[in-house]
Amino acid sequence: MTEQPLLNEIKALIKSSGPMPVWRYMELCLIHPRHGYYVSRDPLGREGDFTTSPEVSQMFGELLGLWTASVWKQMGSPQFLRLIELGPGRGTMMADALRALRVLPPLYQALHIHMVEVNPVLRERQNATLSGVRNIAWHDSIDDVPEGPSIILANEYFDVLPVHQMVRHEYGWHERVIEIDPNGKLQFGAAPEPTPRFDVLLPPLVRAAPVGAVFEWRPDGEIMKLATRVRDQDGAALIIDYGHLRSDAGDTFQAIARHTFADPLKAPGQADVTAHVDFQALARAAEDVGARVHGPVTQGDFLKRIGIDTRAAALMQKATPEVATDISIALKRLTDTGRSGMGSMFKVLGISEPRLTGIAGLSDLEQAGEAS
After folding, report:
1. What are the φ/ψ torsions at residue 274 (nearest 5 degrees)?
2. Whole-structure pTM over 0.85, yes or no?
3. Are 282 and 239 contacting, i.e. CB atoms less than 8 angstroms apart?
4. How far is Cα 57 from Cα 44, in angstroms, rounded to an integer?
5. Nearest-5° angle of CA 163, CA 164, CA 169?
6. Is the peptide bond preceding residue 219 cis, with omega within 30 degrees of 0?
7. Tell me: the pLDDT tens digits for 80-106?
8. Which of 214-218, 344-348, 366-370 is predicted with the least confidence, judged by mean pLDDT?
């Protein structure tokens, strides 16, 4: 049987301190200093556990590069711009974005690249992918990125931030926990006492949830950090992730290993554990600190609005029939709304300083124009 040091450590913690909240379990699974999933491996691609949009096609990163250029112009084309990526994977998206931005020398010269990454294995991959890039630095947290006008890209970043789960019982909402069953295996449970006055701040949809319903929430700290930064220092952030447009009840805590769903309690630290992103909660938190919110819209809509069909057609024109087929398949994967597509499952949210009233792919005026 495979060694499971993190499972043994979690069981020891539960035995000594009592049942563990889901958020703490998720945090240990992902960023435990020695055995955490995100500090010990490259999880991406065919050989890994999942594939992200930048790995599907170069078009994704290229279009985000052009989106960055559009926002930079709206900011008044500052002579200095920090381009920050949170959780940059193998550096694929940044490399594709920068290739697209080379056609705009004034912006390309203005760029200072900041990669926020805790995984040493992925840092090495990013370093290799971006070996020719000047003015590039790595950080453990966005707190370490110096001040200045910024555009922040966060693709599949928020889904791995630890999530609290609450379970509705007859007399209130109880924190969901991980405990040990009589056979010595991990199982879900609930704190014996309800969390006082938890329902007061709940969205109406959730307040009406039946007994047994699960509600997930993340602390607002990370989104408020981004929103405050762009509010005070000029700029915008683009958040792309899978999740829901409205705050609602539902258990989305899941594990993915080798591109298939797995039991999140079975092999802690050896599978990617995530939970869907609540985009309404992100938008509300950003607005609460005085930033402007754009969207959210689905990834399919966003990519179509910023020109993915035109880009695909241009690439296919120059390609061999085999490569053209691959481009067509990638386009469908990124924009389709069916089960195999990422187009409707993934959402896109923009956050900016208040003077930026419209942002490419996300502005209300554009949406109204399309609807008419």
Report:
1. -145, 170
2. yes
3. yes
4. 14
5. 145
6. no
7. 999 999 999 899 999 999 999 999 999
8. 366-370
> Hey, what amino acid is at 243?
G
- 118-157 burial, b if ≥16 CB within 10 A, otherwise e? bbeebeebbeebbeebeebebbeebeebeeebbbbbbbbb
* Tokens 């609450």, residue located: 166
- The amino acid occupying position 360 is A
- 144-164 pLDDT, tens digit per residue, is 999 999 999 999 999 989 999
Measure CA 285 to chain center.
Answer: 16
